[in-house]
Amino acid sequence: MKSTATGDKVISLTGMIEEAQRALELDDEALASALELKASTFKCIKAGTLRLPWGKLIPLAEALEIDPAMLLELQLRTSSSELLDVIEQVWAPLNLSPREKNLIRECRRMVGGQSAAPLIFDGRGVIALVIP
């Protein structure tokens, strides 16, 4: 997984939430409501005294318009760093850059969900998508 860094510093889950809230001008009550949580529960999550329920991770990412993988990494870093280490070792060969992810998304969009194979000539670029 990629480092959840802003510049050179790794930020906390709370820091990421607060940064995104400021950018979107969302207060705690609006975000708690979007997550179907009590405001007091959300404040405890933000303060770090209560762990974000795993089932709320994707809705939180969607509400804050941020990458759910970044939230997952932050959650794992604080709750189970050993598990995060194992996941990173297992998935490291599949770690894609943002540009690679965008290329895959665009290829999938272009073929409308069908299976496709990119043709690459001379290792210089994608020339065509072949739909078998």
Mean pLDDT: 81
Helix count, DSSP H or I runs of 4 or more residues: 7
State the separation between the terminal residues, measured CA to CA.
32 Å
| Named CATH topology of the largest domain | 434 Repressor (Amino-terminal Domain)
Full CATH superfamily name of the largest domain: lambda repressor-like DNA-binding domains
Proportion in helices: 40-55%
Low-confidence stretches: 1-8
How many beta strands in the DSSP annotation?
A: 4
**Major sheet description:** 2 strands, antiparallel
- What would the principal axes of the Cα set say about the shape? elongated
Structurally, the number of domains stands at: 2
Strand content: 5-15%
Arrangement of strands in the largest sheet: 1-2
**Class by alpha and beta content:** mainly alpha
Cα-atom radius of gyration: 18 Å
Succession of helices and strands: EEHHHHHHHEE
What's the CATH C level of the largest domain?
Answer: Mainly Alpha
Instruction: Indicate the CATH architecture of the largest domain.
Output: Orthogonal Bundle
